[in-house]
Design a protein that fits this description.
The chain is α+β, with helices and mostly antiparallel strands. The protein contains three helices and ten strands. It has a six-stranded mixed β-sheet with strand order 5-6-2-1-8-9. Strands 4-3-7-10 form a four-stranded antiparallel β-sheet. The termini are far apart.
């Protein structure tokens, strides 16, 4: 009975205090000299943020104009996620997005990128919407994975390889 009560209490607390988080994974592919970035953001949070920023209405899951929604996502991510490799900014190109369960996966890439020794990531996704937003960052270079948790307002993580 105690375990059942505990599970009920946890579900009630989560219902009253939503969890705001995103996950961004940055992977360097040495053979292809590419940097891939994928960002997982809860669908409703991203959609509400984009609607507010661009002062428009749309359905991110089944958009009437997918290219327009991709443009909103690309513009937003360019404003809120940036990467520097060995101190130099990297131009990330938006590839597209897909819906998976309750999240939007967005994909970006940079070509002709040498393996870095230092990776600096700025990520303040959804900070303007949620004071308790957390953004997890995973960086993989040369098969070595490092992770860091950014809590609003902290927006920069630095990784050494």
């Amino acid at each position: 009975m105690g375990l059942l009560l505990c599970k009920w209490w946890v579900s009630m607390v989560l219902a009253l205090h939503p969890f705001y988080a995103s996950v961004t994974e940055i992977t360097h592919n040495a053979a292809r000299r590419e940097l891939g970035v994928s960002a997982r953001i809860f669908t409703d949070d991203l959609e509400n943020t984009l609607k507010k920023q661009f002062k428009t209405s749309f359905d991110i899951i089944k958009p009437a104009n997918r290219k327009q929604v991709e443009g909103y996502i690309a513009a937003y991510l360019q404003q809120h996620i940036s990467v520097k490799l060995d101190g130099r900014p990297v131009a990330l190109k938006f590839i597209g997005y897909k819906i998976e369960e309750d999240a939007v996966w967005s994909f970006l890439e940079a070509e002709n990128v040498a393996a870095p020794k230092k990776v600096e990531v700025r990520n303040d996704v959804l900070y303007e919407q949620h004071a308790t937003q957390t953004n997890m960052i995973h960086v993989i270079v040369g098969g070595k994975r490092q992770s860091y948790k950014l809590d609003n307002p902290q927006a920069v993580a630095v990784f050494g390889f």
